[in-house]
Write a structure and sequence with these properties.
Layout lengths: L3 H5 L18 H23 L12 H14 L14 H14 L4 H25 L2 H17 L15 H17 L5 H18 L4 H16 L3 H28 L3 H14 L7 H13 L5 H17 L4 H21 L14 H6 L1 H16 L9 H27 L5 H18 L14 H11 L5 E3 L7 H5 L19 H12 L5 E5 H7 L7 E6 L2 E6 L2 E5 L1 E6 L13
Parallel strand pairs: 1-2
Antiparallel strand pairs: 2-6, 3-6, 4-5
Helix pairs in contact: 2-5, 2-6, 2-18, 3-4, 4-8, 5-6, 5-7, 6-18, 7-8, 7-9, 8-10, 9-10, 9-14, 16-17
């Protein structure tokens, strides 16, 4: 068969084109076919594992409902930070505002964005594969990359999280860095510009995710200086900063036009940076740090591949030692800052999937090495007197022969093509493993009647409607189901504790003390504690308890209740809801 490198570069002779797969006839066709495979893999995985997809009756995750509430508010004239309190970037709210304008409170547009972003991530991974592997192998490697990424525990929050939209950006950064190392050249100005623009977009979604690009930019600058090309290093830094600033102009203009720059600085920058200072004792912070580190062991395949990729890069890849060290620095810095320092939240670890493609490249070598190491340790009796190093080399050679034999069988089965014989079982495996290992698939069995948000909305409508307040709880979708823009600045509880930001707690307590909300959804324990004090103007209307499935491995029992403002204070009361 023709050499695939020549085929992909468009060097396929005319008389052989009839027997050559269409995707091997030119570089353009090869790239388009790889992109189509990435889109197919992302579509299957995201549709099965994300609660934003049409297969799910309702997405009850608090983060996505926060975003959708803010987006709904923007679509109806509210200004983030100024009129509604939430702590993500304005670009994220704009995305959900666009979703609301297109399809209301359904998340179909977000699902499509997830699929496209997932496909872009897989394609960036494919480009990394192509630095070290042949074309057909690289296309096939897209499927295990999709499986590892979209079924890992870090994808446990239901879908639609901020980290998902920029996995492609991180994977692209890894590809750019590795390509510069393979070529022995500095990163180009165009690549620096793209990375700067991506960093700007990240900043206006969730700036705590910038750790990766900070490390990448620093390593690129240092490498340019070490190659005695400091001018190129400063030029890359300048282009990076310039595109970062250019991307930020529209968002700054929007906030300035709405007189919300000060509110943005106070809420998005100030509180995120300093608002958690009072959040717990030293012991609590240490426990949280250990818990965040423990999340790595709950994503064993993802982290094993990331480590295997780093080991393979250091042992087998022919790039400079400096580039190898820089890769390790970027990976470790991203892990420490993004996954440990930022807090004990599982989906923060999702960014580490950007380092998985290189692990898949080195997986064949790593698996052989692990098997050989085990054999060398335990076959000493059969090879008495033989040094363990020689036993390892012999076992490694045998493992490679077995691996090569399995690969040859696969190539023979497929006929050397990425056709139906390859795609059909790969797609079926994605679907089956997605259903088994996807974090949210148990919710596929749930209908709307299983979510109390819909029952609460019906009860409130029967009472004639009115304003709702999620009191000392997260936004669980009660505003979403009612298609309501909150009338209260602090419309739901955030992750900040009272010691760090008392205004939020004081504000919510002020709403209920004054009887400003017609209906209140809160925890049953909060009602029992405050029914004679802060909540004295309300009466118990309905039990809204249910199990919130964080993942298929376990759920959280939410003991919630609906309260109604008493009739003597101008509300409907329980009598008005019967």
């Amino acid at each position: 068969m023709m050499d695939e490198e020549k085929a992909e570069n468009g060097d396929c002779p005319h008389d052989m084109r009839q027997t050559t797969p269409f995707y091997m006839r030119s570089k353009l066709m090869g790239g388009l076919f790889a992109a189509a495979v990435c889109l197919l893999a992302a579509l299957i995985c995201i549709t099965i594992v994300s609660k934003c997809s049409p297969l799910y009756a309702f997405h009850d995750g608090n983060d996505v409902n926060w975003f959708l509430t803010m987006g709904r508010g923007m679509a109806q004239g509210k200004v983030p930070y100024k009129d509604l309190f939430e702590q993500k970037g304005v670009l994220l709210y704009m995305l959900f505002a666009l979703n609301y304008l297109i399809c209301g409170n359904s998340l179909y547009f977000i699902w499509i964005v997830e699929v496209l972003c997932g496909a872009a991530f897989l394609f960036a991974g494919y480009k990394t594969f192509r630095l070290f592997l042949g074309y057909r192998t690289s296309v096939c490697a897209v499927f295990p990359l999709a499986l590892v990424t979209f079924t890992c525990r870090a994808f446990w929050c239901g879908g639609g999280e901020a980290e998902e939209y920029f996995l492609a950006a991180f994977a692209f950064g890894v590809y750019v860095f590795l390509r510069s190392g393979v070529r022995g050249k500095c990163v180009t100005l165009a690549e620096a510009a793209v990375c700067g623009a991506l960093s700007g977009l990240i900043f206006w979604v969730k700036y705590s995710m910038l750790a990766f690009f900070l490390a990448l930019a620093a390593c690129v600058f240092i490498e340019c200086c070490m190659q005695k090309k400091a001018g190129r290093g400063f030029a890359c830094a300048g282009v990076f900063i310039a595109t970062f600033a250019a991307v930020s102009i529209p968002f700054l203009a929007y906030l300035a036009a709405n007189d919300a720059l000060g509110d943005m600085w106070r809420v998005y920058i100030g509180i995120n940076l300093f608002g958690y200072a009072g959040g717990g004792s030293l012991l609590t912070n240490i426990v949280d740090l250990l818990g965040a580190f423990g999340e790595a062991f709950l994503n064993p395949v993802m982290y094993a591949l990331a480590v295997c990729g780093a080991v393979w890069l250091c042992r087998k890849c022919k790039i400079s030692v400096r580039m190898k060290v820089c890769y390790i620095v970027i990976m470790c810095f991203t892990f420490v800052v993004q996954c440990l320092v930022m807090g004990n939240i599982g989906y923060y670890h999702l960014v580490m999937t950007a380092f998985v493609p290189l692990g898949i490249v080195g997986a064949r070598w790593s698996i052989c090495g692990i098997c050989a190491g085990i054999c060398a340790l335990f076959n000493g009796r059969r090879h008495r007197g033989e040094p363990i190093e020689r036993r390892f080399e012999s076992a490694f050679k045998g493992a490679r022969e077995h691996m090569d034999g399995l690969w040859a069988r696969g190539v023979k089965y497929s006929g050397g093509r990425v056709g139906v014989r390859v795609l059909a079982p790969a797609v079926a495996a994605l679907a089956v493993f997605g259903l088994i290992f996807g974090n949210n698939t148990l919710d596929l069995l749930r209908g709307r009647e299983d979510f109390p948000q819909f029952r609460a909305a019906e009860l409130m409508e029967e009472a004639g409607g009115g304003s709702l307040l999620c009191y000392k709880i997260y936004d669980r979708g009660f505003y979403t189901v009612r298609d309501e823009v909150p009338q209260f600045y602090y419309f739901a509880l955030n992750l900040i504790d009272r010691g760090s930001y008392p205004d939020m707690y004081d504000g919510q307590e002020g709403y209920v003390t004054a009887g400003e909300a017609d209906f209140v959804v809160t925890e049953t324990a909060c009602w029992e504690e405050e029914r004679e004090t802060l909540l004295s103007k309300y009466e118990y209307a309905a039990d809204l308890s249910y199990t919130y499935n964080r993942s298929n491995l376990g759920g959280v029992r939410l003991s919630l209740c609906l309260l109604a403002l008493k009739a003597e204070y101008g509300g409907a009361g329980v009598a008005g809801m019967s």
